[in-house]
Amino acid sequence: MKVLVTGGAGYVGSHSVRALLASGSEVVVLDNLSAGHTAAVSRDATLVRGDLSDASLLDDLFEKQRFDAVMHFAAFIEVGESVVDPLKFYDNNVGNSVRLLAAMQRHSVKRFVFSSTCAVYGVPERMPITEDMPRRPASPYARAKLAVEWALADSAPAWGLGFVALRYFNAAGAAADGSIGEDHDPETHLIPNVLKVALGQREHVRIFGTDYETRDGTCVRDYVHVEDLASAHVRALDVVEPGETRWYNAGTGQGATVREVVDVSRSVTGHAIPLIEEGRRAGDVPVLCADSTKIKKELDWSPKYDKLHDIVASAWQWHQTHPNGFDNRRE
Ligand code: UDP
Prior knowledge:
By secondary structure, this protein is of the alpha/beta class. It folds into two domains: 199 residues, Rossmann fold, CATH 3.40.50; 90 residues, UDP-galactose 4-epimerase, domain 1 (Alpha-Beta Complex). Helix 5 links the parallel strand 5 and strand 6. The mean pLDDT is 96.
């Protein structure tokens, strides 16, 4: 299968590119490198630097490459920034997704896997979250992701598109072979920020909110290994048929508090990891945990990493060997 991967130089995208190649697919990555890293893209994939807003680039690519499917990761990811600059998110995350779909329609490409998010649920009524629970996205970031899900559902019948939207929980960890991992600038995610303290790059971890109604007052998240997410994408592509539409949560179903993440990181790194307690971060919800029964049953997918310790250890291996992230000459 020949697959176009947008945002394939990013975190989940680059791990999915490797999983696709390992499954025997041919991969072309389209990335504008605004946040992605050339060094993250496997040399066995073709890297095209370009933007989804460029309709003639898309037409050329689709015309020449004759893709069987598209995996769409390219998007801005920072929730806080989406509150400050919503139109930036609507333009890139929604507008460019629509332009991509329009190009797929023009070229009759009928298989699509979309990188969605558990943030579409907002503050859920109960835990764990199942796919049928109401979508009440609480930020422009989350609303833009949901808008793309709607655009997919509304437009798919027009050319018989089949799609899978994967709503993932908290992606974490790094490739088992140590080759690629997480490198955001600025880094806002918990696990890399904790590990930067263990590396001596930061003095302490800031804990955002200690008065939530959770077992220790800090937020609970479902951390899922990035290679498990990558395998979920490959499974999604294996099963998706033109005209068929599917939505899945992807998580482990096990929640960890912020304090538990720090404790596990202390045990993995042997570092004391000092912390300071701060107020709540705007937009955070107390608990997010996936009920992944549907994807387990229908895609025969289950996460290989089911222990937070192993997820943090894999991230630690990456951060220790790449303390300054990627070297962006292509490795
Ligand atoms: N968090 C924190 N300190 C940090 C980064 C994150 O206390 O330096 C908390 C954050 O408030 C949330 C959890 O860790 O409760 C996970 O945050 P992250 O940004 O990793 O993922 P999110 O759930 O927001 O997608």
